[in-house]
Design goal:
InterPro entries: DUF1468. With 146 residues, this protein is mainly α. It is built from six helices and no strands.
Length: 146
C-alpha cells in the first residue's frame, strides 16, 4: 500500500508540473480554436486524477520480483540502450543480431538457439523494413560498405 501511495503522489506532482509547463506554451497567430495548450493539459489532468485515485485508494501490497528477475530486467535495459547507440555507427544487422541473441538467451538460456534467433530476427527484420516497408536502413557499418 505504501508503494502505491508514494507512486500516486509522485505521479500527481509530475502531472501538476506538466500542466504548469503546458500553460507556458506560446500560441501562434494561426492556431486552431482549441489551441496547442488543450491536449497537454487534458493529459496532465488525467494523469493527476489517476495519481490522486492511486494515493487515496491503493491496492494491496504487491509481490515484487526476486532479485534475479530485477537483474535480468536491468541487463535488458542496458542492452537496449546500447542497441540504440550502436545502430547508427554499426548498421542494423549486427547490433540487432547481438541484442536479439542476448534477449533470447535471457528467455531461454541455450546459446546456439539464442544466436540463431538473433541472426534470424536481424536478417528477417532487415528484409521486411528495407524491402517491404521501404525504410532507408543500412545493413552494415558504413566503413565496411564504403
Amino acid at each position: 500500500m505504501a508503494s502505491d501511495r508514494i507512486f500516486g503522489a509522485v505521479v500527481t506532482l509530475i502531472a501538476l508540473a506538466y500542466i504548469a509547463s503546458a500553460t507556458q506554451i506560446q500560441t501562434s497567430f494561426m492556431a486552431d480554436p482549441v489551441g496547442p495548450k488543450t491536449f497537454p493539459i487534458i493529459i496532465g489532468a488525467v494523469a493527476a486524477i489517476c495519481g490522486i485515485i492511486m494515493t487515496l485508494k491503493p491496492d494491496e501490497e504487491p509481490e515484487w520480483p526476486e532479485l534475479k528477475t530485477m537483474g535480468s530486467l536491468l541487463i535488458a535495459v542496458v542492452v537496449l540502450v546500447g542497441y540504440a547507440y550502436a545502430l547508427k555507427p554499426l548498421g542494423f544487422i549486427l547490433p540487432t543480431a547481438v541484442t536479439a541473441a542476448i534477449l533470447s538467451y535471457q528467455i531461454n538460456p541455450q546459446p546456439a538457439k539464442a544466436a540463431a534467433a538473433g541472426v534470424g530476427l536481424s536478417i528477417g527484420l532487415f528484409v521486411i523494413f528495407k524491402f517491404a516497408l521501404g525504410l532507408s536502413l543500412f545493413g552494415l557499418p558504413k566503413f565496411v560498405t564504403g
